[in-house]
């Protein structure tokens, strides 16, 4: 499977990257394509990387805006792209194939609130829309320990340490290769379990030692390296570094804890396992 970084900026879009978004694709004749998070600004570069009509599913690690808010833009694209009105949408506005969104409970309500300003007045609402994004999306809850088979990929979720309900995501392909995405998390046992033996551990490192002292929110480079070492991952890709942070400092922290290869995630970079 191939991992492509779409948006890698931490907490908000940076000058050179959208917020969190990653694409995982298999190389089968009929590929499985999963988007991990669709944060603020990410729909733009995502469209350069993939036909969004071809996605198998979107999986959201948690419901902070930098991880989910561009779902509202994708809803507009799905509902109002003229090609959908020319044969792919029924007379009542129902889209024939909806994109599945796997997310923590409450995602549908939260994203609907973000999208609809006045549900009764939207064009689709006039045709019987339920004002819940269900024209374009079908929502499925994730929980700690859940495993969903999406095409040829298995997606497991692990509850991690963040101020809101948040999950690390472990993706296993048909060959047994593993990519783990931390989402947002401080150091915790579940994150180590999620990353255990992964071929690629795509791990946030939003904080910097000695500067960012709050706990239960994010990893520093040091703590990301420590998790990678404890999980015995084959490679570490650091991401979600805010624009105010010097990436080399965070990478240096990680390198003192983790003895394997370390890279910094950048948009439009891909890795294959
Ligand atoms: Zn975040
Ligand atoms: Zn967050």
Task: Write up this protein.
The chain is α/β, with parallel strands linked by helices and 273 residues long. The chain has a single domain (2-272), classed as Metallo-beta-lactamase, Chain A. Helices cover 23% and strands 24% of the residues. It contains eight helices and 14 strands. It has helices at 43-49, 65-68, 71-80, 82-88, 107-115, 189-195, 221-231, 247-255, and strands spanning 2-7, 21-25, 33-38, 57-59, 99-103, 137-141, 147-150, 153-159, 167-172, 178-181, 200-204, 236-239, 262-264, 270-272. Helix 6 (189-195) crosses helix 7 and helix 7 runs parallel beside helix 8 (247-255). The radius of gyration is 18 Å and the shape is globular. The site of one zinc ion has 7 residues, from helix 2.
Mind sketching the topology for me?
Layout: E1 2-7, E2 21-25, E3 33-38, H1 43-49, E4 57-59, H2 65-68, H3 71-80, H4 82-88, E5 99-103, H5 107-115, E6 137-141, E7 147-150, E8 153-159, E9 167-172, E10 178-181, H6 189-195, E11 200-204, H7 221-231, E12 236-239, H8 247-255, E13 262-264, E14 270-272
Parallel strand pairs: 3-4, 4-5, 5-6, 10-11, 11-12, 12-13
Antiparallel strand pairs: 1-2, 1-14, 2-3, 7-8, 8-9, 9-10
Helix pairs in contact: 6-7, 7-8
The site of one zinc ion (ZN) has 4 residues, from loops.
């Amino acid at each position: 499977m191939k991992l492509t970084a779409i948006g890698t900026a931490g907490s908000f879009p940076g000058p050179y990257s959208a917020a969190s978004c990653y694409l995982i694709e298999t190389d089968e004749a009929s590929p499985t394509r999963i988007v991990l998070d669709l944060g603020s600004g990410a729909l733009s570069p995502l469209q350069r990387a993939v036909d969004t009509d071809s996605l198998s599913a979107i999986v959201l690690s948690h419901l902070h805006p930098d991880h989910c808010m561009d779902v509202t833009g994708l809803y507009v694209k799905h509902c109002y792209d003229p090609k959908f009105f020319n044969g792919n949408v029924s007379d009542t506005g129902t889209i024939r194939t909806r994109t599945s969104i796997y997310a923590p409970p409450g995602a549908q309500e939260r994203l609907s609130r973000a999208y609809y300003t006045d549900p009764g007045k939207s064009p689709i609402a006039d045709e019987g829309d339920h004002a819940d994004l269900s024209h374009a999306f079908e929502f499925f809850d994730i929980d700690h320990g859940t495993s969903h088979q999406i095409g040829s990929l298995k997606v497991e979720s692990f509850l991690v340490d963040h101020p809101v309900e948040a999950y690390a995501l472990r993706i296993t392909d048909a060959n047994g290769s593993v990519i783990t995405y931390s989402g947002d998390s401080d150091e915790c046992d579940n994150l180590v379990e999620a990353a255990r033996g992964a071929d690629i551990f795509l791990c946030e490192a939003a904080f910097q030692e000695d500067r960012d002292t709050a706990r239960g929110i994010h990893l520093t480079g040091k703590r990301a390296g420590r998790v990678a070492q404890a999980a015995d991952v084959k490679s570490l890709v650091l991401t979600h570094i805010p624009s105010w942070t010097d990436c080399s400092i965070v990478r240096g922290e990680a390198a003192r804890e983790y003895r394997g290869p370390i890279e910094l995630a950048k948009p439009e970079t891909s890795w294959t396992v």
